[in-house]
Inverse folding.
């Protein structure tokens, strides 16, 4: 469990300087095996931001990959794990600052013996700064915290600055996927992405927002939302090729 405490301590000091993260990092106590995985598995999978990013992000993975995707705030890792199983030739980078979510993902990675996942146990902002320009085929943000109170809207992940950062790390033609069951956050995200010159909304029909993108893996959170009458909204934005960003 030493890795948990060390990582959280270093991360909290960084956030004290930058104010990047909001909310609790740890919930219920971990089971012994979950705690052990933080010490033996997470160090093998964690991306070392202290070192410069490799010129080819594929070098982060032990086996060759054709493309790399990022999931920001993967929760318990259900979507990321399912995607990694279905697409062994795609590399996945998962970001999750919460201890219990990371513990679930580590357990699933060990159980399924997945080699095409790398992890970042901290706030996404630090990883986003580290990633090279035009290095990713896709970015997923699935059911992020909506911060519903108006005074907290500045804490939402989707802001003009984060949209510009996602545009920088996506290659031309790459896609940003967003899912939420909060209508206000859907409208907020649509507003921010539509006004960005770096993205084009792919919707062709008025009801396209009701349909998930191809290959989407539903989570338990989504199942609960549907049972409670909340309607998911899926938004897909394609990175335009305006050549403002260059690889490197």
């Amino acid at each position: 469990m030493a890795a948990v405490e060390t990582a959280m301590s270093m991360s909290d000091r960084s956030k004290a300087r930058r104010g990047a993260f909001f909310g609790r990092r740890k919930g219920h106590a971990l089971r012994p095996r979950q705690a052990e995985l933080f010490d033996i598995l997470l160090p093998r999978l964690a991306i070392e931001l202290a070192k410069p990013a490799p010129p080819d992000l594929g070098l982060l993975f032990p086996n060759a990959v054709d493309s790399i995707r990022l999931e920001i705030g993967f929760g318990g890792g259900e979507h990321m794990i399912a995607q990694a199983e279905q697409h062994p030739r795609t590399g996945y980078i998962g970001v999750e600052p919460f201890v219990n979510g990371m513990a679930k993902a580590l357990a699933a990675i060990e159980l399924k013996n997945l080699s095409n996942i790398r992890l970042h146990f901290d706030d996404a902002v630090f990883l986003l700064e580290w990633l090279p320009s035009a290095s990713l085929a896709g970015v997923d943000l699935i059911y992020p915290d909506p911060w519903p109170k108006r005074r907290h809207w500045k804490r939402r992940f989707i802001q003009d600055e984060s949209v510009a950062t996602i545009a920088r790390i996506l290659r031309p033609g790459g896609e940003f996927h967003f899912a939420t069951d909060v209508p206000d956050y859907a409208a907020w995200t649509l507003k921010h992405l539509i006004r960005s010159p770096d993205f084009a909304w792919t919707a062709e029909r008025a009801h396209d927002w009701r349909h998930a993108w191809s290959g989407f893996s539903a989570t338990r959170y989504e199942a609960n939302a549907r049972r409670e009458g909340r309607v998911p909204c899926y938004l897909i934005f394609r990175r335009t090729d305006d050549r403002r960003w260059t690889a490197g």
Remarks:
- Confidence is low (pLDDT under 50) at residues 9-24.
- The beta strands are 67-72, 90-95, 117-120, 136-142, 170-180, 199-201, 233-239.
